[in-house]
Amino acid sequence: xxxxxxxxxxxxxxxxxxxxxxxxxxxxxxxxxxxxxxxxxxxxxxxxxxxxxxxxxxxxxxxxxxxxxxxxxxxxxxxxxxxxxxxxxxxxxxxxxxxxxxxxxxxxxxxxxxxxxxxxxxxxxxxxxxxxxxxxxxxxxxxxxxxxxxxxxxxxxxxxxxxxxxxxxxxxxxxxxxxxxxxxxxxxxxxxxxxxxxxxxxxxxxxxxxxxxxxxxxxxxxxxxxxxxxxxxxxxxxxxxxxxxxxxxxxxxxxxxxxxxxxxxxxxxxxxxxxxxxxxxxxxxxxxxxxxxxxxxxxxxxxxxxxxxxxxxxxxxxxxxxxxxxxxxxxxxxxxxxxxxxxxxxxxxxxxxxxxxxxxxxxxxxxxxxxxxxxxxxxxxxxxxxxxxxxxxxxxxxxxxxxxxxxxxxxxxxxxxxxxxxxxxxxxxxxxxxxxxxxxxxxxxxxxxxxxxxxxxxxxxxxxxxxxxxxx
Length: 472
Description:
- With 472 residues, this protein is of the alpha/beta class.
- It contains 14 helices and 20 strands.
- Strands 3, 13, 14, 15, 16, 17, 18, 19 and 20 form a 9-stranded mixed β-sheet that branches. The protein has an 8-stranded parallel beta barrel with strand order 4-5-6-7-8-10-11-12, surrounded by 7 helices.
- The chain is globular and about 105 Å long.
């Protein structure tokens, strides 16, 4: 009887690890993701290509409703303003606007995009340290809520108000030390030094502007809800001090109508260097809401007892709303063994698409169960740059060319901070609540990439034969 000859395989020594609980929590199983809201990922890649961003409309709507419910059941006057810089794809913005979110913008581009999407000026919060005169004038005319960042902006806005013959309501941005996070001192006016109070007095004195709101943003990926409670107490203390100021002749008494706590809530991504996964250390939205709303209710109790309305609470949530609504599908294009023995895998998506790879260890899943012994693997992107590392270390079974891996969550800051560098940026598709799907941002091509260039006539056809010089 003839025995079938087996294929020789190179011996491999690999460290085996059990699936036991250790001091850093349970080891997560390498489960796979093969569908998005019932739509097979394989079908999406076949139709739209790889790499591919896929967004879930259902999850985005559910996230917003959960966030709004968490706050509106704990405080009577709440407005969510969608942070455009987190993900300003038009489809994403308009889903959230349909759900009731305002727009929070930080540049002329974002302001113009919000207006183009149909957001009235009165539903726009205009933040940021740079607002040029033209866009600031437009914002005043259209009734946007303007947040002041520095004195020169105050002076410019006062001049605009004088030119237009209008008294402009404004919000003052503050920075201070909560004792929980490092102060973001580059934005707004310093509270402890008295700078914020001096700005408020200047606004009251000149009479061109009317201070109606206070705003602060204490940081990003805040893991302790108590930081927001401290923030709220400091804002409300300043509100009481400003309102208690005795106006001079001709000045209007200041009444604060809104408190804006910014954003910064954590998502289910795991920060590099963290011993525990985000599922174990990131607060849920109800924990944030409980800390914030309890502090705000307590700090405004005296105001309510006096028969005055509590201020409107503005929240500029971004990452926590959108991060887990989007994933990146990428395909293996090559394998190699590094000199130190580690296996390396080359993917068709790099840090040009997934900028957050620089600070997150994204969860990575195959699209089917994988066979073989997992070993330490480094994941590289396709770019000719040494920094193009999608993951420095992950335990993976062998993955062949064409195998697909899923990076998740990737909905926050990647579609706004991605780079056009070396590779074309791919399609972004959305899966609708009814299971339909389609492109919400098309893949780039050469025509798109060169449409803004201009070629001087003398540089056209560089390989055209030059006529020989005539002899003298």
